[in-house]
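Risk register update: the risk that structure generation would not scale has been downgraded. Supporting records follow, first protein first.
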Amino acid sequence: MTAPAQERDPGLQPERTRLAWRRTTLSGTVAAVLAVKTTLHSGTAAGLIVCALCCALWLGFLAVAHHRIRDLSTAGAHRPPALAPRHAAAAAFCTIALALCAAALVL
């Protein structure tokens, strides 16, 4: 007689990963909101361009994060699919570029 197949017990790891994606998204949201606030106070053309870029980068990161959170939520007892390299690169690019744009607005 063969032993029954055991389902994967992921523990809390997928939930921690989902929460990390949400925290990072929240941080990006704060940076984008501060960029808008800074631009509204300065009102320069360069500031408007950088602010628009910050908002576009935030939307890009939001799309990647939402995709990953959805993958982690629907995996259930199964192992979630690995993050695609292009999604990882897009998330890293958006995060770094958003930080640089926010720093440019402050300076």
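Supporting record for the second protein:
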Amino acid sequence: MVVTDNAIHISEKAREKVFELMKESGKDAAAYFLRVGVVGGGCSGLSYKMDFDNEIKPGDQVFEDNGLKIATDIKSFLYLVNTVLEYSDGLNGKGFHFNNPNASRSCACGESFAV
């Protein structure tokens, strides 16, 4: 999936997993959304973060893709523009993966990146 519309996207499989995790944690999907962001750290300099939230903050960038609301702060959005959040449950590793076209390199485990 390649996108160029200055948003953050989520694959169908990742969306399904997010809703499953919301349900398991007792979060109402009508009230909560996925918050993604970037923080300093990791072996490549920047790391991704994800959490559930129910409060939009001033300056947040908010998107909806595949029926899921996604929010990020403006600083993180500069690193995440046109990123697709994907989920894998295969033999080579299970979990969420940020397919980020802005990353110039990432670490071997895929947990951190650089621009």
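The mean pLDDT is 86. On this basis the risk owner (M.S.) recommends closing the item.
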